[in-house]
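Annex B, item 7. Sequence and structure tokens for protein A, then protein B.
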Amino acid sequence: MGLIDKAKSFFQPESKRSEKNPVFANIENASSSTEPTKHIEDDSIFEHVISDIKSWREALEMWDNNISPNRAEMQLLYREASIDDMVVTKFNILTERIKGTEYEIAGANDTVDEDKTVILNSKWFNKIIKHYVESIFYGYTLVQIPLRPNPDSNTGDLYDIRDIKLIPRTHVVPEWGGIRKYTYSDNEILYYTKQKYMNRLIEFNDIDEYGLFVSIMPHYIYKKNALFFWSGYQSKFGITPIIVKTDLDDSENTDKLEEFLRSMASNSYALINRHDEMEALNGVSTDASATFEKMKDTCDASISRIIDGGTMTSVQGSSRSQAEVHENTSELLHLGRLLEFKRVINKQLIPKLIAQGVLAEGDYFRIKDTKDIDAIISRILKLSQAGYLVSEELIEELTGFEVSANISSPESDGSTENYYNNEKLIRLEETLHEIKTKLTTTG
């Protein structure tokens, strides 16, 4: 019996949390009989933010508890933040970039085995990639693969995608190498570090890593509450209040009039005596929505900075030079994540595939060495513009495409204004553009 199969009969749901907090009502195994009930006396945005920040800090304390570490509360907060629009966008981009990278299986002699590489071009491996990306956000992640190849009857993939299963993070206690039966109880623990389980498990991220969500949470909390109160502000002040003056003094008719006012579209109304005076004043003369938009943009910029190391590539208003600097930073961060993915696959997945007879001893996983044609073309143009000789042989060697343009060293008449020959530079640019077009059409 696999760990996830045993865990299904091992986990016990605790329903009281769902009754206390409807936000988590549909989340499996997400309840606690000991969790304090949240209560907000004031509808002030600060009260809401303070309450949410307090919940985040308490969850962090539970995670870091030396006697009984528990990640359940924090993981539930992480799930809530995972639906944020900026987070979803960044998560999908990162996932697709890692999926879009070309990988290969090489043997002990460093020769690529095309037949074995085919197993990576499949849904089950894409699911492995997805769980790896999740571990960047959620922290330590435990994934189970089948004990032996179980081809998908529809696609012929090595494994059925349904057999690649995530062990619920709310129950995992990596500090102990175990899984709780009850989310908030230490009475019964299933230890997965036994060999019969570990030969099917892949561990992503370190046990002491919180994941990016721990830093994203405060910004998400402020953003969520800003949008909530923006909606409330529009509901209260977006529609002109109604003021009714009347001589009615009997409670029955007054109640009927008030009921009528409640049924109208306006959110605000006043019922006063005809001799009384009431004046509705505007709080601000400008559009108050700008305040909420500014707060949302600030939070989005912070979330973007946490995930990809910069904001200029995804936030409007940046210059081209700023975007290039931040893009380079993002590329370095992405390269680090790719190398970590390669390390985990070689250390944990490849040995299991060798043990199952799918791969041979000495086989290993690596990132395919591909040429950055855009960078190559850019460098060739810069060299030519600087007056250096760019030969046909060099272009063919770097790009792999045969060129026919006669590119030679720029002719100079001795003046700095005519340092290189414009006609030949144009031919060079046209040739490089032709190479790039061929590469695009041939994939």
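Protein B:
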Amino acid sequence: MLKIKEFFYLSITGVFIIGCNPSDTATEIAVAGTNGQTIAEDTTVLPKRTLSEEKATNWYVRLVASDASKDISSGDTMLGVLDEENAVQKHTLEASATPANDYIDIIFRDPAGVAAGDYKTNFQQYIDNNSEHRWSFVVKTDDSNAQITLTWRGIYVLNPYMDDQDRQRYNETRSMTNPVIKNMQLIDVDTGNVINTLSGNKAKVYYFSMNGQTEKRFEWVMIPDSALPVGGVK
């Protein structure tokens, strides 16, 4: 059974949400990889849904990078789409200063629609299902020899409503079966590897080495429905 969370303020995005959130605990299982990188699956099991879901137009995912050797991780970077005017300006928030050492972080660098800089969240405005969305982000660490895992948590579907003060608010529900997931791909920009975000209904986990660098570039892509293969991204 899903446990209903108390109403809370998601300070990182400035979005008020209330929702259901099963445990994000994951077990990673290594599978095939290339160039010293491997992909694994998040084995989190969510409750089965008996009703078909509409394709979300308001949603976000949370990116998670970890360095197991130092027992450090970063899990507060979020990307998403909102059917809301000025979504980029309202909900794309700057990153904090980077620590001097022993850190790992994920940031969006110079996203469109806001001033140049590093950001922790990047929400884009929903237009229609035939519009492509791309989020460029960087995984960075002070350890140029680190072995890193990159995964994601979500998808968090946001259902909008107006509160008694006429402010936009959202109910949040986590779903790994929403049709919007079929449009998603992760791209390792440095190697060209294209990583499908799901295997079955489980999130994949991407393993990679920093290979002497302190930053590594990725893109999260939402493929338009008109360019989507039959059955979605495979």
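Comment on protein B: Residues 29-47+55-227 form one domain.
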